[in-house]
Design a protein that fits this description.
Shape: elongated
Strand order of the largest sheet: 2-1-5-4-3
Number of strands: 18
CATH class of one domain: Alpha Beta
Radius of gyration: 51 Å
Structural class: alpha+beta
CATH superfamily of one domain: PAS domain
CATH topology of one domain: Beta-Lactamase
Number of helices: 14
Distance between the termini: 45 Å
């Protein structure tokens, strides 16, 4: 026979097969790989956003140089507007830019856009005041140019001296859309530029549709919290996105690189996919090994469980060899215990039968003494006494059948209230009573049955008795005896021995009380019993 391995050896093989530390390490590697891939994606997006912001700043800086060159030119000083217009054309501003000259009141003196009507434009002058106090670009936020009605931005430069003129380079936001194509952007991404008021200046997708739109509430909160970062968000179109943004310290504008969230996460899952596949393969192989090694242990556990269940049913467990040394020893102990319990059960049964025999002899002796005592006296009293002894003997027989262990209340009611004509009906759940409670309840039912046979419903052929019981919410027993079809009931004028016996049994053995209600249709006895915590009722 193959030598049985110890449980420790089997568990060691399982641990080595599963290789839990390696699995945990590889799991951590997958998590770290995912985190690093996520950070790498964020860094790349943020670098792109910074590059777009720098490109916009450089374009604004070139426009500022142009504005400064015009402001300091002799043509502006001489207010020779044809020469100023000619000079502006030589500077090569492009088709999305033009020059505007205004005085201190905002009246337009010159514009190269072709929309000059001499009106005062609607844009105020706070940009100039800010530009004189720091090194920021004197660039405006998005505004509506009068009288053309176009949404534009402008870079203002005051003329030197006391002329109080302002030379402005006005920029159509469409100018910045062309800058985005120069940057290497992630696939399916788009770029959005918002001004200091967080309104869209330029957008690489649907620019005309969203020009001037306010950024989403989530992005406005992010812009207020930090100058740059990477946050999950939703676009103005409602698409789930990841946004990398960088705010320029020179213009106050913010460049945002917007990527669909699925596209952002795709490289992350790709980077960890290989490691995950390896982990799954390793875990699969480990599980196969662990399953084979645990099969023997599982089989031994199942067999040992069957042996223990048989022991619980009082059956004898045969000794059998096993493949695992530790389980083999436990099974040997279970087998020995079953044989020892069998021997003890035999001795206990013998003792109980001997005790029951002696109790019956004692009851027979008491009955003989009662016959001598009651000789010449009331025959009815002697019959009552003998019946009570018989009921007590019947209860002892019932308990002997269960070796004085718990007994079903249904057996107690059937045995102690049995009628040959089946005029007594009973209903209720199966409840196991301890021996002392079963004896007390049996005597109470006997007294109720005797009284009913003589005075109550069972004294007439049409009379009936219904017995019901149930468990209460506080772990008590509710018992009801109801008679119908008998003679008219009137309360007794005195309390007999049977009533006093039931009250003592209910109070001392059943820890409760029996209430008798004398209704005209028949007697109703209601019992409310409660056992101590150590001996509660049990449903079966």
């Amino acid at each position: 026979m193959r030598k049985a391995r110890s449980l420790r050896e089997r568990l060691t093989l399982m641990i080595l097969g599963v290789a839990a530390p390696a699995v945990v390490a590889m799991g951590c590697l997958v998590v770290l790989s995912m985190v690093e891939a996520h950070r790498s994606q964020e860094r790349a997006l943020l670098a792109t956003a910074r590059a777009v912001s720098s490109a916009v700043d450089m374009d604004l800086a070139r426009a500022r140089v142009t504005a400064e060159a015009l402001a300091s030119s002799d043509a502006v000083a001489d207010r020779d507007w044809p020469r100023v217009a000619e000079r502006a054309g030589e500077l090569g501003l492009g088709r999305h830019s033009w020059v505007s000259i205004t005085d201190a009141s905002g009246a337009r003196l010159l514009t190269t856009s072709g929309d000059d009507d001499g009106t005062v434009r609607s844009r105020p002058r706070p940009v100039l005041q800010a530009a004189r106090g720091d090194q920021r670009l004197p660039v405006s936020d998005l505004f509506t140019d009068a009288p053309s009605g176009r949404r534009v931005v402008a870079i203002d430069t005051p003329t030197p001296g006391d002329q109080a003129l302002v030379a402005s380079v006005v920029l159509d936001p469409a100018r910045f859309v062309g800058l985005f194509t120069r940057e290497v952007l992630p696939e399916s991404s788009m770029v959005t530029i918002v001004d200091g008021e967080q309104r869209v200046i330029a957008r690489s997708r649907d620019h005309a549709t969203h020009l001037g739109a306010l950024a989403t509430p989530h992005m406005r909160a992010a812009l207020d919290a930090a100058r740059e970062g990477v946050v999950p968000s939703r676009s103005l179109d409602g698409e789930r996105t990841v946004v990398a943004y960088a705010t320029s310290r020179h213009s106050g504008w913010t460049a945002m690189v917007v990527v669909p969230r699925e596209r952002f996460e795709a490289p992350i899952w790709t980077s960890v996919g290989g490691v995950t596949v390896l982990l799954v393969l390793f875990v699969g192989i480990s599980l196969v090994v662990a399953t084979r090694q645990s099969g023997a242990i599982s089989g031994e556990l199942d067999a040992l469980e069957r042996d223990v269940r048989a022991l619980g049913r009082g059956e004898t467990v045969a000794l059998r060899p096993g493949r695992i040394l530790n389980f083999d020893r436990v099974q040997e102990g279970v087998s020995k215990a079953s044989h020892e319990l069998e021997r003890r059960q035999e001795r206990q049964t013998l003792l109980i039968h001997e005790l029951n025999h002696r109790v019956k002899n004692t009851l027979a002796t008491v009955q003989a003494l009662a016959a001598q005592t009651f000789r010449g006296s009331d025959a009815e009293a002697r019959v009552k006494f003998e019946r009570r002894l018989a009921a007590l003997g019947g209860a002892h027989d019932l308990l002997t059948q269960t070796t004085w262990s718990e007994i079903d209340i249904r057996d107690v009611v059937a045995r102690c209230g049995e009628q040959p004509d089946e005029r007594m009906t009973s209903s209720g759940p199966s409840i196991l009573l301890p021996p002392e409670a079963a004896l007390a309840l049996c005597m109470c039912i006997h007294e109720l049955t005797t009284n009913s046979l003589k005075y109550g419903a069972l004294s007439r052929p049409e009379g009936r008795v219904d017995v019901r019981w149930s468990l209460t919410q506080d772990a008590g027993l509710s018992f009801q005896w109801r008679e119908t079809g008998g003679p008219r009931v009137t309360p007794p004028t005195r309390e007999g021995f049977g009533s006093r016996l039931m009250e003592r049994l209910a109070r001392h053995e059943l820890n409760g009380e029996i209430e008798r209600i004398y209704e005209p249709d028949g007697l109703v006895a209601i019992g409310r019993f409660r056992l101590p915590e150590r001996s509660r009722w049990r449903t079966h």
